[in-house]
Specification:
single chain, alpha+beta, Double Stranded RNA Binding Domain, 4 strands, flat
Length: 172
Amino acid sequence: MLLSSQITKVSRSFISIMAVLFLASCQYQPLYGDRGNSAGAGLETVGVANVDSRVGLQVRNNLLFLMNGGFASSEKTHEAQLRVSYSNKQLASLPLVADSTAGTVTVRASYDLIDLRTGEVVASGLRDATASYDRTGQVFANNRAVRDAENRAAKETAESLRLAIASHLSQQ
């Protein structure tokens, strides 16, 4: 009886020590945030070049907001140059139905991340997103549905771009 109680105490002590060691090895560290180990590694130091279309402007504005929350930083270390294209495909065209009943908008953005100190392209890639919409017999409602789908796809594309750029900056 005495021996079993001593073994139980030792095993509890061992489990307690192992739990403390395990928890001490766990660390919280943001996946895409600034880790504080290099100045200028944050997304707020990335500028985004101007684009030439309405959908491209939606992608750019959403990306800027996601990267710096609407606050401009005076010290830029990188610049993202975007090339945005989009397409609108009408689906479910039936011979007995006068109008298509559904559609999808695809927004595609390729980017080059340029280091402003050296002028070199340090990363590039392609991201895209798709948004669906319904069509009715009303022209204005159809036009608005297409525009809303473009905006949704542009926002999703900007989120993908932000993650790609943040991933690259965290590896530097």
